[in-house]
Amino acid sequence: MEDSSEKVYSKRSSRREQFHFYNSLACLVKALEGSHTLVDLRNESSVAGYVVLVDGYMNIELSDVVYLDPRGEKYYFPQFFVRHRNIRYVHIPSEHKSVDLMQNQLKGLNYFKTGNKGKRSYKEVRARRYQKETLCSLNTENKS
């Protein structure tokens, strides 16, 4: 199941969505796909259920949901969708460690391109040279 969700995510996600995924905690919530969790909403209600899908904006799709409204009444839904702007907290289950979840999510995805960047412009070369000179002068000052 994990491979198919990654394929769906990579095919349907825009560059902006990928940016939000890598520059926010959406990757942590995406790592909770396939587990049960509790989501507190902005209107003092909460939703508990099985996380089916999380996108780059942190919209969450849940199944087998129990919705607890602010008055304490429970409602059951087979599927539930939570928009990112309505989320206050996402409770991470105690059996998961947040650092490990984030590292596993980020190492499997190739957002940053690596390799040869091509020929550098004169400005880049000059800036790099100036940076090296500054570092060398700081190192010699620290030694004396």
UniProtKB/TrEMBL annotation:
InterPro entries xrefs: LSM_dom_sf, Sm_dom_euk/arc, U7_snRNA_Sm-like
What residues does the Sm domain cover? Answer: 30-91
Question: Do you know which SUPFAM superfamilies this protein is assigned to?
Answer: Sm-like ribonucleoproteins
MF (Gene Ontology): histone pre-mRNA DCP binding; U7 snRNA binding
An example of a Gene Ontology BP annotation on this entry? mRNA 3'-end processing by stem-loop binding and cleavage
Q: Which domain of life is it from?
A: Eukaryota
Pfam families, per this entry?
A: LSM
Instruction: Give the UniProt entry's GO cellular component terms.
Output: cytoplasmic U snRNP body; nuclear body
**What is this protein's name?**
Sm domain-containing protein
Report the source organism. Answer: Phyllotreta striolata
